[in-house]
Amino acid sequence: MPVPLLESSVGELPKRKEKVICIEASTPVLEAFQEIMDNFILSAPVRDEKSGEWVGFLDLRDLVSYAICDYDDKHAKKPARTMPNLKVCLQNVETSMYALNAAAGKAVSAAYSNITYLARRHKFCPVTEEKSLVDVVNLLGAGIQRVPVVNEDGEIVNIVSQSSIITFLNKHLDTLGDVVDRSVADLGIGSRPCKAVTVRIADVQLIRAS
Q1: Would you say 69 and 118 are in contact if contact means Cβ atoms under 8 Å apart?
Q2: Which end of the chain has the smaller Cβ count within 10 Å, N or C?
Q3: Domains, in order of start, for the chain
Q4: Distant-in-sequence, close-in-space partners of 104: CB < 8 Å, separation ≥ 6
């Protein structure tokens, strides 16, 4: 029996029950992040409404990056006596972002307050439903977090993530042969070097190190 991943196309993956949440590039950053959180998702594709082109994905992790960037900007000339935890940084994000929108802010923070800049950090690599699942797995393996599936009009009809592939394979375990009986070590999974930190390190420093 053939391995389904080799024989299947993207169109065979389960369709999303809910509508794909998309964000316009002109949306204020705070509103964009709020849209992501209100819909209980981790990221959303961003589209330039003027050109009609997709520019990338806005990821909830960008909010954390912004909080740390904002903290670093504020303490560049006057270092803080103690390293704050991530919660403190995030609590100041809303006030800081409104201030940046009003006063332009420094170069780094101004960039972080722009959705297009943030979205382009997460590439938009679309595929059609006819594309092989193997090709999508290769994209995910190359560092792409989410692969959008578009129709002939360029509209997003589905988004494929690593969990989508795992769910698909889990439903077809009987076709994978002896692969399912092999160990993690045999498959070479989880063999990359990992970074270790002490339990005393501040979470902000931990994120910088990751």
Answers
A1: no
A2: C
A3: 4-10+20-209 (3.10.580.10)
A4: 110
* Residue 77 pLDDT greater than 70, yes or no: no
Torsion of CA 88, 42, 191, 169, to 10 degrees: 160
Neighbours of 22 (CB within 10 A): 15
Please provide residue 144's backbone torsions phi and psi, each rounded to the nearest 5 degrees. -75, 125
Dist CA 49 CA 95 (whole Å): 27
The amino acid that residue 183 corresponds to is S
Averaged over 157-186, what is the pLDDT?
A: 85
Task: Give the residue, 84 or 163, on which the prediction is more confident.
Answer: 163
The rounded distance, in Å, linking the Cα atoms of 202 and 179 is 41
Interhelix angle 29-38/61-74, rounded to 10 degrees, is 140
**pLDDT per residue as tens digits for the range 82-114:** 544 445 544 555 555 444 444 434 444 444 457
Residue with tokens 């000339």: 77
The DSSP string of 49-85 is: TTT--EEEEEETHHHHHHHHHHHHHHTSSS--SSPPP
**155: Cβ–Cβ under 8 A, 6 or more apart, which residues?**
none
As a residue count, the chain comes to 210
